[in-house]
Structures
1.
Amino acid sequence: MSEEPAMTTPVREQESALLEVRDLEKYYPITAGLFRRQVGSVRAVDGVSFDLYPGETFAIVGESGCGKTTLAKTVAALQEPTGGSIVFDGRSIGELSNRELKPVRRQVQVVYQDPASSLNPRKRIKAIVAEPLIVHDIGTKAERRERVDELLEQVDLPVEYKYRYPGGLSGGQQQRVAIARALALNPKLLVLDEPTSALDVSVQAKVIKLLERLQREYGLAYLIITHDLSLVKNFADRIGVMYLGKFMELASSDDLFDNPMNPYTEQLLSAIPIVDDEELKYKPAEISLKGEAPDPSSPPSGCSFHPRCHKVFDACSKIDPAFYDVESDHHVRCLLYDDDHRE
């Protein structure tokens, strides 16, 4: 049984990855005393590895505080990693200066959770969407005006909306503006940080359909961050389940829902309300997720999930499990799949 981190999928073996993340770490120092000496650290991201391919949607799910947003910000070069490596389109981001990062940032754009707070309320829509073009000195004024019109049409907004302010739009329309702004530079990767959580359910579906259409038309890769497994069931190609800075399970969307292997994944799936469906291969039992997530500055010994796990046994409190390749491209961090320690 292999203990190597999850990297590729069988379908993608002959294709070059757009994004390669290896053993990524992001720690925040904890200081105390008069001289603010470091007395510990919060391991927000603790040794995460994955690949993302052109045209693929990779979802990272988990509870609040698990490190998924920190991971997204680090991948988007908005924060410097503490350790590990990030290679985007063949270039190692960690080796680039701020000046050298500018063309990389053109190719990696972010859509944030709350569209109202991500749009400048004092600027008209036309100025908001054109801002990336101005920052990167792309096109003449006339060409930028034309590009703004094209982008609004691409996200199904009337062109005349460019004269409005964000406050005059609904939440769904604001998020479409944010997506239009992210597309302005023709990026290869969109990082979607909870892109629908601030929207009504009916609007969520429309935004997801818009993202799916844009992906088909432009070959975009998506890294989507969410706490909602049901949202990404039919949207993501692969899903990584994160807990206290680490992946607990990584598999294709179908495999994860049909055959969840980590007890934490089972508990997350159990929390999803479902209608009785005869075609479901896996029907989650009612499993309560016990207690709250531990303090990431002082994680439990052994497996970080063991205090809340419904399948815990003695070794779980002593041994930190590796990331086991249990089935073809299905990786799990759990001692249940370690022959040397399983009871």
2.
Amino acid sequence: MAGHTPLTTVPLQRGIVFFAHGSRDPLWRAPIEAVARVLKQQHPEALCACAYLELNDPDLAAACQDLVDAGCVHITVLPMFLGTGRHARNDLPHLVESLRSQHAHVHFTIATAVGEDPRVTQLLADIAGEHIA
């Protein structure tokens, strides 16, 4: 067809939010932010943000808004907790449900808490083993 422009497929922008509790101690957030920095070093195209439940900024809504503004249509929230306690089991799903109603065009996923990943368990055991060897 003359003048026909073929449709191009634009990859869906995916983003990740490292979600942590928060603390009054300003040094507490350094390890969370280090994970985001390493991800960006390994994957410069990655869209990621850190967010905190309380005591630190940005909160989850602000971090997700930044990713939406950057074009994300799929956001994974990765709980940076050793286990799935009350915050990951109760608070986080309510926060994400609110985000879903604010951003109906965005698909939100809550990942399993990082501490429940067998690779993290093994790494922590390896680190502990260094102290008893």
3.
Amino acid sequence: MNHDEVIFLGSAYVIGLLANRLFLPPLVGYLITGYILNFFGVLPFSGLHHFADVGIELLLFTVGLKIKPRSLLKREVLSVGSLHLIIVTAVSVLLFIWQGGHLSGGIILGASLAFSSTVLAIKVLEDNGELSTFHGRDVLSILILQDIIAIGLLAVANGKTPSPWAFALLALPLIRPLAHRLLSATHSDDLRLLLGVFFALAGSALANYVGISADIGALLMGVALSSHARTEDIAEKLWGLKEILLVAFFLQIGLSELPTVEQIQDAIVLLLALPLQGGLFFLLFVLVGLRARTAFISSLALMTYSEFALITTEAVVKADLLSSQWQATISLAVAGSLAIAAPLNRFSHRLFSRFEPFLSRFERKSGHPDKLPESIGVAEWLIFGMGRTGTSAYLALHEKEQRVVGFDADPTILENQLSHGRRVIYGDAEDVELLNGLRLERIKGIILTMPDFEVRCSAIRQLRKRGYVNFIGTICYFEEERESLEMLGANFVIHPLTQAGNHLAKKMFFA
């Protein structure tokens, strides 16, 4: 490692740490680091762009592992995604022509500004543990729809069309049997990580060869493998690697070009339009029948400018359809939108709680696909989070002939649990409306097994605020979490791995 790489990594860590102390995601610090290094004349080292590309490919590959193709055909995905694109593009084109720009350049730029940042949205949803929730899947599906449209848009911007062999990518699912055999035969953690990286890069290389975006190839390869039982394990193995490589992506945005005063002013105008983008998404989500809460959280996740706009702007500038000053303007607008959206998404649930009385007025009265349960019947125990821990708790209570109901916000988990005859209902533990609407008088105990610490804290806080006085049990992964959860009102807090060790020792001792 040369000294340039040490400077980049050290600077990213220090400024990322400062951002984190200010309750901002580290990625905001990485963006700022790129601009600071650019200001002092530090040039990117030779492998930075390549590392950034690999990071995005690994990210989209792991996302593809979690995709159910039929989710793209949902009404809210097709209608909201397409209508938003048409409206934003039309308005942008009119403004661009009014300022004397080329029609074709305005169409491509306008469509690019309608797209949302795939990297940030997925990163935020993943960090919040919401990638598999109802709204997380809708956001992800809209992003994929945008990426598919982006393929054709980029082809127009570059003045070339994809190879006829591009349709061969649709045959990727045919390699599924062979890929599944390889996954099943791979037992070593190191080899499983290597195999995951190979699949991601193989998909991107194949797509690049036939004239399609490499990112789309990585995504489609993930989709092709999504049904295997070990895909979740591969995604976990790739998590740390892609996190490190994505630092390069955020650094290179700031390193691209320092803007002039005029370009900064233009970028500020674009950033001021962001609430209009988010508002349009919200209204469209509500019109297709989603609850105000789902619409608001989804809209915040999509309220950014896409890194794809950087690519199309460069192509359009080279084709002399835009002036070169737009490159720095769009770069700053994209970076600024990421910096604004990241903290807003971190507090999206709290923000909705504050504005709920106003936002709920826009909600349709019926027909919500994300509707809340009308009743929990005669249940005496509630479990939020029906993963492995939640399912174990459910089965233990069921064996004791206790009346128990599970809640989960992941449609796939719901489908699986219902197929086993368990009583599980759609519900998000951060949904204040859900917690306030539950009849808790006869509930003996509530178990919270969601992986995200903030979600567990929020649920306990809201339940105690409602006046619930019976038992609340939850999990923790660090000792400081235990203290915070008990202070908020949890009666029982266990560490899953510690309890597993205690249980194993007792079983062996009394054998």
